[in-house]
Amino acid sequence: MSPNGGTTVAANRRSPNWCSPPNADGCRKRPGGCQSTATVGGSESPTKERVARVAVRIAFLLSLLASGCHTPELSPVDITGPGWVTQHGQAIWHARPGAPELAGELLFATNQLGDFVLSFSKPPMDLVLARRVGETWTIEFPAERRRFGGHGAATQRLLWLHLPGALAGRPLRTPLQFESDAGGGWRLANARTGETLEGYLAP
Fold first, then answer.
1. Which CATH class is domain 84-201?
2. Burial 67-105, CB ≥16 within 10 A → b, else e
3. pLDDT tens-place string over residues 113-132
4. Minimal CB count within 10 Å: which of 13, 30, 34, 128?
């Protein structure tokens, strides 16, 4: 009988290797595990049940982290296959005020579904790789070892992901701004961050 009136039953009376006294969690340790002798509501809470409850909680938390932070993976695509239109051009990227302008080669491929592949490179290095398939998008900055992905509308801070829509004539939300000229040149800017893209694509 315990001092508080509850009954405490040792988890394994025959285990001679337990250390004493119990630790702060009310557990006596022995080789191969920890057996609880804590009194809860007048009776012992079995160790296996505690471990099971903790495991469920950890699995739940990991599922939340995965759903919030996981970058989706897109299967490789052959942009030379039927249904794809590919254009090549040049672009100048000004990532932010005070940053150097980067000039490079631009490759843009799209299909009738609105899926696209966008590459900005300065051979032999890829600077930006962006893709969209349905509602899923990814963007990678290999030189900076950064990669993002998601579903639905992309954040306006990822300016490259909004270039295909601007080129297709779709309206952009503030603070994004797009201009084009009769010669095929265009300029996409984020008025809030100061990031700009300027270039052209050959028909």
1. mainly beta
2. eeeeeeebeeeebeeeebeeeebebebbbeeeeeeeebb
3. 999 999 999 999 999 999 99
4. 13
